[in-house]
Each structure stands twice: as structure tokens, then as C-alpha cells.
Amino acid sequence: MTVGGTNEACDARESAEAAYARLVAHYSAPERVGSALERVKAEARRRAAVRARGGVPHNRGSAPRWSG
Amino acid sequence: MADDDAYEVFFEEQYPRVAAMLIAYRGFAPEIAEEAAAEAMIRLYERWHTVRSPRAWVRTVAFRVAVGLAVNRPDGLPEWEVADGRPAEELEAALLALAAGTAAAKLPPRQREVMELALADLSPAEIAETLGSTPEQVRGNLAHARRAMRTLMGSEEG
């Protein structure tokens, strides 16, 4: 890790922080975060139901895709 | 299963930050970040009453899931895996987390939270954003926590 970084490193860090703030706002949109929450809870319940039947739920592959 | 109200508040606050962290600071593609953040949140939902530090826990799990997803994609892991030696840092952080787990549990609550997030490889700026404080406060907490952990680990070894 570089100590006392260059101007380019500072610019990159500021750029990452700006991108982070923009993305947090994007994913915090009520319809987006609400939809993600419902899908997460539905998938958790599906896995719980599989376990209750003695099965082994797959963590990935069976899960819905999250784009959007 | 989770206490839905508390979990929902946590989800609405943290899911956007976890997905954003994976994209902006770790360089993952948005679809991988979204899937990894969601997968971590599913696993947290299943363990809501037993996870002691959910903010640190969910970030650690999301990062590991994202790595697992990325290695199976044609474009692979983000460039940092090769460019700046991060795998070694991740391994070192994981080993330190294992070694320091007992000592970290004995820290005051704020220092413990900051240290657990640092062990999950979050920067002071990310920790500050997660905890609603400033990077300077986080650096101060980390300095106190490191001193305390050195003392605790030293006294346990001796």
C-alpha cells in the first residue's frame, strides 16, 4: 500500500467516494430498496421451507437475479 | 427467523451501502454487487438474532460472495486482485481477525465495532460512513482499540 499517495491516488479516492455517494442514493430509492427487501425475505422463507422439509437449499443459483 | 421490523430498518439503511461499497470501492460489476449484497442480507435474515455486529458481518459476507461470483465470470475478479496485492491483505486481515477475535470482543462497544469493520477491510472513511461519525473519530477509535488489543493479546499470551 502506498503511503503519502500521489495526486492521481487522491483523485481516484475522491472519485470513488463520489461514486459511492451516487450509488447509495441510487439503491436507496424507495421502490428499488423495497423491491430488494421483498425478494430477500421471500428467498429466506423459501430456504427455510426447504430446510423444514429436510432439504438443503442452494445459496446461489436458485436465488433470483438482483438487477434492477 | 428475523424480527421483521428491526431487520427491515437495517436492510433499508445498509443494503444500498453494501452494494455501493462493492461497486465503488471494490470494483465489482453492479450485477455481482447487487447479487452479493442480497445474498449476504438473506443469510443475515436467517441469523438475525445471533449476529453480534451485523454491519461488519454483512459486509464481510457480501465481499466473499462477490469474489465467489466474480471468479466464475468470464471477466473474472476486478483488477485490484492482480494489481495491488489485495489477496494478501485480505488473507492477512482474515488471519488477524481470527487471532484478534477474542481480544476484540473485550473492547468497549464503539472500539469493538470500529475494529470489526477495520478487520472486514473497510477504510476509515467507509467505517465513518457506516457508523455515522467522521474519519478522524474512526482513526482515534482505531488507535485506542489497537493499543487495548495489544495489551489484551499480550496479557493473554503471557
Structural class of chain A: mainly alpha
Element order of chain A: H for helix, E for strand: HH
Q: In percent, how helical is the residue content of chain A?
A: 55-70%
Distance between the termini of chain A: 35 Å
Approximate strand percentage of chain A: under 5%
**In total, how many beta strands of chain B?**
0
> Can you count the helices of chain B?
8
**What is the number of strand segments of chain A?**
0
Main sheet record of chain B: none
Proportion of residues in β-strands of chain B: under 5%
The averaged pLDDT of chain A comes out at 77
Average pLDDT reading of chain B:
78
Q: Report on the biggest sheet of chain A.
A: none
Distance between the termini of chain B: 42 Å
Regarding quaternary structure, what we see is heterodimer
The shape of chain A, in one word, is elongated
Instruction: Please estimate the helix content of chain B.
Output: over 70%
List the chains of the largest interface with their residue counts: A-B, 30 and 34 residues
Protein name (chain B): Sigma-70 family RNA polymerase sigma factor
Pfam family, one (chain B): Sigma70_r4_2
Domain RNA polymerase sigma factor 70 region 4 type (chain B): 102-149
Keywords (chain B): DNA-binding, Sigma factor, Transcription, Transcription regulation
What can you tell me about this protein's structure?
The complex is a heterodimer of chains A (68) and B (158). Chain A has 68 residues and is mainly α. Chain A has a domain of 46 residues. Chain A has 2 helices and no strands. Chain A is elongated and about 60 Å long. Chain A starts with 6 loop residues before the first helix and ends in a 16-residue tail after the last helix. Chain B has 158 residues and is an all-alpha fold. Chain B folds into 2 domains: 80 residues, no CATH class; 74 residues, Arc Repressor Mutant, subunit A (Orthogonal Bundle), CATH 1.10.10. Chain B is 77% helix and 0% strand. Chain B contains 8 helices and no strands. About 5% of the residues of chain B have low confidence.
